[in-house]
Design brief:
10% strand; alpha+beta; single chain; 5-stranded mixed sheet
């Protein structure tokens, strides 16, 4: 039931205050909401309360936990719910005004969890649970002293007993085999401290293998105030001096390296897909092969694979259980657009690339490209890290190490502390690789991203990156070297004409007879190749390269193979030599016209062969026979044409950003709800002598 006090509180808020509430609690923005009462119901949902609690800072969360654990003190309730921390807690509608005091909203205690402030449940609750487990009835005694010990009395207990209790300081539940046994009341505390505690009801069983320290004992263990040690001020240590140019250069280099590595990874997987193990994940042999191909260390490779997965740049083929590049032309987009897509996906995805190698509950570790690298709380943890970086950059500009960022993030979002400890260090490394941090200093794109301005962040990254190059340096050793990032169309054409060598900052390709034959098969001819080289070369085309192109053209196409089964056209004497080749023995051969041969292909459907990555054995035999006859055949395998694209199509739009776990309403939706809530008909007093639960 919604308290009348909460309804009056919401109705009394100004439009600006309601707008601030909806911005801070986007989960309450629902299409069907039309009244303050419906808004209150949305605010009191269990999931909504938990997400609001995740946004509280250390002092704000401590104030709420103190109110829940200690209850109202003697005197007015206003003494309990007063002070600066409650201002924001009230703005988030976690408490509501009732006259001159604040009261907790219904459901808040359950949303805080079973162990607020790391304390156990109250002793009466645990005593009843223990009695039921032991089968002695809910009223059976479970220990000696009825009243909890004072902190001074606790300090007088034997040292072995205090040593056991210290293990419950941060967590009230402990593992104990045979927790339901009947303890000996006469057990010596020095020899059997656990039995001594069980006999006196200081530890109470919650199942057959676990015991829990009651809340009253936990308070005494902490001296009555478990919140005393929590820092009330944000930890903002002094920064190290980092020049802006050094910061931006480091971040820009990281962005260029990341995009180059993603393109190289996709090219490698296009040629050789990444096979998976039957049990899931990637085997050591495949990872070693990929490391050698990309010249990366193991941690760099697994983070790269994780980023490619979360951005949808590589996909698991269900037919072959192999990872292949997504068909969307990611490389055709401008680099700022590529970066924006990866960063948007990183913010929304629950994949944690740096989680590979972390331990799991069953004793194993997180594997590469497995479900173990998925964490539902990854997006809020990333946002918490960016906010901490932004606060540090605002209060103490300069460089801050990972520990400084994590310490502030834990203070700003204490309910995410465990996730920050587990995922945070690796996520900060990912942020540096994305250019959000450079030389330990928060970059301008990082600040824009922390503020939710993703388009401005992309424009800042675009200002770092030089314009794409359209020329290469051709050399007499039959290589082409690009001194910078090549325009997508130039890089695509160069990839058709030559074989890539290495994946360094400067793209390097080598022209070979086989690469030129591949280009001729794709529709190039010697004249068009030489014209392209002359247009995109910084110097005259080397004579050795021109000779290689002309020689490849002379030797190419004297026989042409076309799928039909396989149709061969060319000089009659060469075709007759092929027809008599032992490699075609047993295959039907027809001569429908002079200079034409038709050879039967394999019986298995070609589409299924191509889907499995295999080639037609008949085609392999034809090519080998033609080469044995001293000529290089031109092969037209009849591959399907790619789907047509409009000239202004954005390649990035063909890739999907992971859908966020919690949808963020659009500004139009918020404005529409605000207009309905501030209508005169809804700003009336809910009235109310109706009773409600405090």
């Amino acid at each position: 039931m919604v308290p009348d006090g909460l309804l009056r509180d919401l109705a009394a808020r100004s439009p600006d205050e309601l707008a601030a509430l909806l911005a801070a609690r986007p989960d309450a923005v629902r299409p069907g909401t039309t009244t303050t009462a419906e808004l209150a119901e949305a605010l009191l949902s269990r999931a909504g309360l938990r997400r609001a609690l995740d946004e509280l800072t250390r002092p704000e969360l401590d104030a709420l936990e103190r109110a829940v654990v200690l209850g109202p003190p003697d005197g007015p309730a206003g003494r309990l719910l007063a002070g600066p921390p409650w201002d924001r807690v009230h703005r988030l509608a976690l408490v509501h005004r009732d006259g001159d005091v604040l009261r907790l909203v219904p459901g808040l205690t359950e949303a805080l969890g079973r162990y607020p402030a790391g304390l156990g449940r109250p002793r009466p609750v645990l005593s009843a649970l223990a009695a039921g487990l032991r089968g002695t009835g809910p009223t059976a005694p479970c220990g000696g002293a009825a009243a909890p010990p004072a902190p001074e009395e606790l300090a007088q207990w034997p040292p072995p007993v205090r040593e056991v209790l210290e293990r419950f300081r941060s967590r009230p539940v402990g593992h104990l085999p045979d927790a339901l046994r009947r303890p000996d009341p006469e057990a010596a505390p020095a020899a059997r401290p656990v039995d001594w505690l069980l006999a006196r009801g200081v530890l109470l069983p919650v199942d057959s293998r676990h015991v829990e320290l009651p809340r009253e004992i936990g308070l005494a263990l902490h001296g009555g105030d478990p919140w005393a040690r929590a820092p009330q001020e944000a930890p903002v240590p002094p920064a190290t001096r980092v020049p802006d140019r050094l910061r931006d250069n480091a971040a820009a280099a990281a962005v260029e390296q990341l995009l180059r590595r993603l393109a190289a990874l996709r090219a490698e997987l296009r040629a050789r897909p990444l096979s998976t193990l039957r049990a899931g994940g990637i085997g050591v042999r495949e990872l070693r092969r990929l490391r050698a191909a990309l010249a990366l260390e193991h941690p760099e490779l697994v983070r790269l694979l994780g980023l490619a997965e979360l951005a949808g740049l590589v996909l698991l083929d269900p037919d072959t259980s192999a990872w292949r590049p997504a068909p969307a032309p990611f490389e055709d987009a401008d680099r700022a657009g590529q970066w924006l897509h990866v960063v948007r996906s990183w913010l929304a995805s629950d994949v944690v690339p740096s989680a590979v190698g972390l331990p799991l509950a069953d004793g194993s570790v997180v594997g590469v490209l497995t479900r173990g690298a998925h964490a539902p709380d990854a997006p809020p943890v990333r946002r918490a890290l960016l906010r901490a970086h932004a606060v540090l950059a605002g209060r103490a500009p300069g460089g801050h190490g990972p520990e400084d960022v994590l310490a502030l993030a834990r203070w700003q979002r204490p309910r995410l502390a465990r996730s920050l400890d587990r995922w945070g260090p690796g996520m900060l490394t990912e942020a540096a690789e994305l250019g959000l941090v450079g030389a330990d200093a928060f970059t301008p794109p990082g600040r824009e991203l922390a503020a939710g301005r993703v388009e401005e962040a992309a424009r800042a990254v675009a200002g770092w990156l030089p314009a794409p190059s359209r020329t290469v340096l051709l050399q007499g050793d039959l290589t082409a070297t690009a001194t910078g990032y090549l325009a997508p169309a130039v890089a695509r054409a160069l990839g058709e004409l030559a074989d890539e060598e290495g994946h360094g900052p400067a793209a390097r390709h080598r022209f070979t007879e086989r690469s030129l034959h591949r280009a001729l098969d794709a529709g190039w001819d010697p004249a068009s190749i030489l014209a392209w080289l002359a247009e995109h070369s910084r110097a005259p085309v080397p004579q050795a390269l021109a000779y290689l192109v002309e020689e490849a053209g002379r030797d190419h196409g004297r026989i042409r193979i076309t799928r039909a089964d396989w149709v061969l056209t060319g000089e009659e004497d060469l075709l007759e030599a092929l027809a008599r080749s032992p490699r075609l023995a047993g295959r039907p051969v027809r001569r429908p016209a002079p200079g034409v041969l038709v050879v039967a292909g394999d019986q298995e459907p070609a589409g299924r062969r191509r889907g499995a990555g295999a080639r037609d054995a008949a085609l392999d035999g034809l090519v080998a026979a033609a080469r044995a006859a001293g000529t290089e055949p031109a092969v037209d395998p009849g591959r399907p044409e790619p789907p047509p694209r409009t000239a202004d199509a954005d390649p990035i739009r063909l890739l999907e950003v992971p859908a966020p776990r919690h949808r963020t309403p659009s500004p139009e939706e918020v404005e529409d709800l605000l207009a309905r809530l501030t209508a005169p008909s809804d700003r009336t007093d809910p009235g109310g002598d109706r009773a409600w639960d405090h």
